[in-house]
Amino acid sequence: MNKPDKRDEVIQAALELIAEKGFHGAPMSMIAEKSGVAVGTIYRYFENKDVLINALYHELEEKILVSLRDGYSAGEPFRKRFLHVATALLRYFITHPIHFRYIEQYQHSPYGASLRRDRLLGKANIPSIFSELFAEGVAQQVLKDFPFIILFALAFGPLIALARDHILGFFVLDDVLITQIAEACWDGIKR
Amino acid sequence: MNKPDKRDEVIQAALELIAEKGFHGAPMSMIAEKSGVAVGTIYRYFENKDVLINALYHELEEKILVSLRDGYSAGEPFRKRFLHVATALLRYFITHPIHFRYIEQYQHSPYGASLRRDRLLGKANIPSIFSELFAEGVAQQVLKDFPFIILFALAFGPLIALARDHILGFFVLDDVLITQIAEACWDGIKR
Amino acid sequence: MNKPDKRDEVIQAALELIAEKGFHGAPMSMIAEKSGVAVGTIYRYFENKDVLINALYHELEEKILVSLRDGYSAGEPFRKRFLHVATALLRYFITHPIHFRYIEQYQHSPYGASLRRDRLLGKANIPSIFSELFAEGVAQQVLKDFPFIILFALAFGPLIALARDHILGFFVLDDVLITQIAEACWDGIKR
Amino acid sequence: MNKPDKRDEVIQAALELIAEKGFHGAPMSMIAEKSGVAVGTIYRYFENKDVLINALYHELEEKILVSLRDGYSAGEPFRKRFLHVATALLRYFITHPIHFRYIEQYQHSPYGASLRRDRLLGKANIPSIFSELFAEGVAQQVLKDFPFIILFALAFGPLIALARDHILGFFVLDDVLITQIAEACWDGIKR
DNA sequence: CATGAATGAGCTTTCATTCAT
DNA sequence: CATGAATGAAAGCTCATTCAT
User: Fold this and answer.
1) What is the pLDDT of residues C57-116, one digit of tens each?
2) d(Cα D153, Cα D163) in Å, to the nearest integer?
3) Angle between helices B128-139 and B148-167 (to 10 degrees)
4) Is residue A119 exposed (0-12), middle (13-18) or buried (19+ Cβ within 10 Å)?
5) CA spacing 20 to 30 A to A114: which of A61, A121, A129, C159?
6) What is the DSSP letter of B140?
7) Is any Cβ of chain D less than 8 angstroms from the Cβ of C146?
């Protein structure tokens, strides 16, 4: 639980640098400098740069899941739960733009493809909140009768696109819009 | 007869290598070798690697637009036209997976951010087929009253996510599914 | 005598480009473009870049010698003849700054060292106007009793340094100064 | 004990290689090899090749100034001081031919032109020993009434030319000649 | 003779990784 | 455990030279 301080410094520095400058714009030496640590020290905590990049991604993913579960109650009606998850996700991204940029880069790189493949092959696990939600929605016949992967794309594809547009400054998301957008996504998946 | 023989070879080699290995996994020397051309020759056709990457993107985009316009008739009802564009786009991607992977990488890189910004500022032009379609839909009050950028995300965000999932082999898209998905996207944007 | 037009164009373009940008800032392709000739054509007239560079130097040297002999009369008193040569040289340089810059670069490059060595070994000939002038001056006991090479340095070393300073804009030479400088050089060599 | 071990090795290797082969005949890889260091190591000490070249020049210049000040006494008569500086300079060059060749190349390259310009504009400082000497000489009316730049050329132009000739083996300078030459230069500048 | 597309060796510079201290 | 100087493979790009047309 009490991870060494230095490890956290490195993770944070890597996050900020890579989010801003991309994987190749953030050399290990720069990460070392920003985190106030020697280059060699990074290699005590992470075997190599790839390991660092993957570990960072998984930490971010975990933080998002925690945030989605906050205020999420299995007792609520299904639609309400979906809207909660969708708006929480969008809100997380726009309040953590650096996390978003990192995740986006990760997912569209070879790293992301590997992880997805591993998840498909069962080597890595799919976050349960999503699979449970959609499994239930299909079972209750509230949702369109699509495979999980399609429902996921219909529900979250637009959110991610819009988070990016907001973060890039192409338009501004406010609470009203966020709700309207989540409802539009709901229209896309509801039966 | 076909003058830009070498240029085409280079473009094709770059497309395939970058789609597979990413921008940084495809050095100029590798592109040269794959295209059967000397390194220096690439620089006769493209001032530098960035120019090559951008030119390639614009060629692909143009091909997609041509393909979307094929069978598109302004006389058809609005919904039908939307479904045509959506299914055609999805079909293009799954029949040209390499193009898709290249475009995806491009759009999530600094190159893509620059282009988007230029388009927003009016320096580069937005493909008219999309802007016309949505402008008309909003005017006719068939679509939800959202700004263009949100409609675009709702309509195409899921398609792109699903194209990627199909190409990565996570599931299989067939004609029936494609139509159903396009209709689900329609549900997301229609009033 | 009627050298091909193209050869002259190449020589002139090379002169201007190299004078301004140095040997390595003037690629053959640039020389070709500036002279309105194809790259391959240059190689019809000059076996390679080194040959071009050397040929150009010798053409310039010849022009200077012609200009020094203009108005030079063996009948004049010795001092007057020296002042003529010295002022003519300085005037040539400041009216042909491009020639000066080329020559300067040449003489301080490996090319210049080779040529000097060849002249020492008798493979190349020393311009006669200088050797005759100084030989006579020494014989008449008007000049200090130094070897030719030292007299040459005392007489022309300052001129060349000042031509450079003038051309670089560090100060301005006018007719009065030119005469005064030549006389100061005379003070350096006269007995 | 001697920290900048590698830095010195690099400086020395660069000096020798560039003196012999010119700036462009001494690639970084060659400098690395000669100094027994990896290429990348050079870049720890010098940001790039230009920085290395300039740093090397300034180190040499400083060494020369130190050597000129050795045995120089402000109390001596003016002529004696001038002769000291002139002979010391000539002696330095012929005992350090590699330094001479490097300096010569530097001064006749774009590097040298930049430095001269900076010194003229006051951005870089002119070695005080020269400016003080000539300023005093003019004030005492011992020297011809020329601007500093002309006196400098008259005094040192011949020395530099003769150092080069000696180093290239065109003739041999000995102590007697060196003194005679310095006196001839004195004749050039004295009133 | 003239052309200029093609070549590829060679240049400068970067950066993930190692290891002696 | 921490350090950061050292490494050297590999990248993008240039340009003198060739040769099919």
Assistant:
1) 999 999 999 999 998 888 889 999 999 999 999 999 999 999 999 999 999 888 888 888
2) 15
3) 130
4) middle
5) A129
6) T
7) yes
Listed as own residue / partner, the contacts of A164-173 with beta carbons closer than 8 Å and 24 or more positions apart are A164/A100, A164/A104, A165/B149, A165/B153, A166/A93, A166/A94, A167/A93, A167/A94, A167/A97, A167/A100, A167/A101, A168/B113, A168/B116, A168/B117, A170/B116, A170/B120, A170/B149, A171/B147, A171/B149, A171/B150, A173/A90, A173/A94
Q: Check if A105 contacts B (Cβ < 8 Å).
A: yes
- Among D173, D163, D146, A171, CA closest to C185: D146
- The Cβ of residue D103 has, within 10 Å, a number of other Cβ atoms equal to 21
Cβ-in-10-Å burial (0-12, 13-18, 19+) of A114 comes to middle
Report which DSSP code applies to D122.
T
Backbone angles phi, psi at B110, to 5 degrees: -55, -35
Q: Does A153 touch chain B (CB under 8 A)?
A: yes
Query: How many angstroms separate the CA atoms of D158 and D184, rounded?
Result: 9
Strand F closer than 7 A to residue D33 Cβ: no
β-bridge mates for residue A143, sequence order? A190
What tens digit of pLDDT does each residue of D105-118 get?
Answer: 999 888 888 888 88
Please tell me the distance from the alpha carbon of residue C4 to that of residue C8, in angstroms, as a whole number. 7
Distances (CA, A) of C176 to C68, C181, C183, C188: 19, 9, 11, 19
Entry pTM? 0.89
User: A163 near A59, Cβ under 8 Å?
Assistant: no
Mean pLDDT of the region A133-156? 92
Q: Do chains B and A touch (3 or more CB pairs under 8 A)?
A: yes
Choose among C116, C150, C165: nearest Cβ to D162.
C150
B185 to chain A: which residues are within 8 Å by CB? 154, 188
Tokens 């260091």 -> residue: D37
DSSP strand E in chain C: where?
none
The answer to whether residues D99 and D18 touch, using CB atoms and an 8 Å cutoff, is no
Please report the domains of chain C, with CATH numbers, ordered by start residue.
1-46 (1.10.10.60), 50-189 (1.10.357.10)
A-to-B residue pairs, Cβ atoms closer than 8 angstroms: 110
